[in-house]
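Hey,
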Amino acid sequence: MRASPCEATAMTAPDNESDYEDDGFDFTGDENEELSQEALIWQLLLLINPGDEETALQQFSRYREAREGEQDEDFGEIDTLQDVIDWTSGFHVDWKDTESFVDSIAEMAARWNLQVDWGVEDPTDDEFLDGTDVPELMARAHDRLREYGYTLWNRSTGGDSYAGWITLRRDDENMQAVAVGLGIDVRPGSDAY
């Protein structure tokens, strides 16, 4: 029987196929490294979809399908993951694209009936967006979401873009442990890369 999302995110990263019982996924063979990566991806999806295990399952299925059909060896796990979570459970924006950042955070926060107070009446106003940058907006969103018990994370993209997701504040340690296991550099949105 599957654990509830709250129970599942409180667990440490699973390390064997018994942690997937009744999820409908068939893990066979001696693929321990791949299995552990998939187990960590599953834990990450549970963390970034708090209270929404159905979305996590859909994203995990799409992730596995994409990895099976992936021909480009340079296209890594994090790129595949980003594709399946974008605009639902994660964001990935160009370094100067303040408008897309505000829109993506608003879209994600709406999943929990939250609105981020950007400090202006209209956060889509061109004057406001032109007078700020993504790191400043990320810090502001991080602070506002913390008030409601959530943490905005950003991950290193290795380039001139910003990416991340939102988790429950109480899952901060689990998020860091899963990120380390996946080799993803993350830190709170208050401290952009």
